[in-house]
């Protein structure tokens, strides 16, 4: 049977040895533990510092990828739209060039000299066809008061005639005095064709001038579309050629162009 005292002494001896051993190894263990703790802190610090850098790098890569995709989409849309735009632009340019080749003319007023005119027909006006604003292009021809149509088609024909007068009111003319202020002024655009013996009136404009003051000034404009044939001739007739204002080319003019 073991002695209880002997067991207690052995136990106490072992505890003392253990405490002594711990006392001798304590500073080294604490140093090792401190080194490990410092390493962990450094690792955590590096991780925390690298986290914003990694986040910024990731965001930059994502933005770069989205930007590249956006540029590809824009380039694709441009490639899709460019053929359509090119075709429409080409059609517009072709149409514009076609218009440039169509017959057209714009004639301006010159000083008129009274001439003999046909019976039952007003005097026809002379025109300037080369100088200033006047022109004839693409085979449109002006000759002897007539604008000659070079090809069949639909034409817009127009004219503005400006009249001037400097006498008293209508109906108050003394015997023996010439009346320079008529009751009305008349403008007619006339067509002459070889297939029809009589001239035909395309447009007619009339304006009463009795209510206008003594020094009066009155423009009359006419314009419309007509189907004309090659060789048709156009002229402008007025009721009183001496009242036509020929001072400025933008006041009295005549023209036509193929539509």
From TrEMBL:
Domain of life: Eukaryota
GO molecular function terms attached to this record: cytokine activity; tumor necrosis factor receptor binding
Phylogenetic classification of the source organism: Eukaryota, Metazoa, Chordata, Craniata, Vertebrata
Family annotation (Pfam families): TNF
InterPro entries in alphabetical order: TNF, TNF_dom, Tumour_necrosis_fac-like_dom
Broad class of where this protein is predominantly found: membrane
SUPFAM superfamilies reported in the protein's UniProt record: TNF-like
UniProt KW keywords: Cytokine, Disulfide bond, Glycoprotein, Membrane, Signal-anchor, Transmembrane, Transmembrane helix
Gene Ontology annotations of biological process type: immune response
One cellular component term from this protein's GO annotations in UniProt: extracellular space
Function: Receptor for TNFRSF25 and TNFRSF6B. Mediates activation of NF-kappa-B. Inhibits vascular endothelial growth and angiogenesis (in vitro). Promotes activation of caspases and apoptosis. Promotes splenocyte alloactivation.
Location in or out of the cell: Membrane
Subunit (UniProt): Homotrimer.
Domain THD as annotated: residue spans: 103-259
Family per similarity comment: Belongs to the tumor necrosis factor family.
Protein name from the UniProt record: Tumor necrosis factor ligand superfamily member 15
Membrane in keyword set: yes
Membrane topology designation: Single-pass type II membrane protein
Gene3D superfamilies: 2.60.120.40
């Amino acid at each position: 049977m073991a002695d209880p005292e002997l067991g207690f002494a052995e136990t106490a001896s072992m505890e003392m040895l253990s405490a002594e051993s711990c006392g001798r190894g304590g500073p080294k263990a604490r140093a090792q533990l401190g080194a490990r703790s410092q390493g962990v802190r450094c690792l955590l610090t590096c991780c925390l510092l690298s986290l914003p850098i990694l986040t910024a790098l990731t965001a930059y890569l994502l933005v770069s990828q989205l930007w590249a995709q956006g540029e590809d989409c824009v380039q694709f849309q441009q490639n899709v739209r460019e053929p359509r735009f090119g075709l429409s632009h080409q059609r517009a340019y072709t149409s514009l060039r076609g218009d440039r080749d169509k017959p057209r003319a714009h004639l301006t007023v010159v000083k008129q000299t009274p001439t003999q005119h046909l019976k039952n027909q007003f005097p026809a006006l002379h025109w300037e066809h080369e100088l200033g604003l006047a022109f004839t292009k693409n085979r449109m021809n002006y000759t002897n008061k007539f604008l000659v149509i070079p090809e069949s088609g639909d034409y817009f024909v127009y004219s503005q005639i400006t009249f001037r007068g400097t006498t008293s009111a209508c109906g108050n003319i003394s015997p023996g005095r010439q009346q320079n202020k008529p009751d009305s002024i008349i403008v007619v655009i006339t067509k002459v064709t070889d297939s029809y013996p009589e001239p035909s009136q395309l447009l007619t404009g009339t304006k009463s001038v009795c209510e206008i003051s003594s020094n009066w000034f009155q423009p009359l404009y006419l314009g419309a579309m007509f189907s004309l044939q090659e060789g048709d001739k156009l002229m402008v007739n007025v009721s009183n050629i001496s009242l036509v204002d020929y001072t400025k080319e933008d006041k009295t003019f005549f023209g036509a162009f193929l539509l």
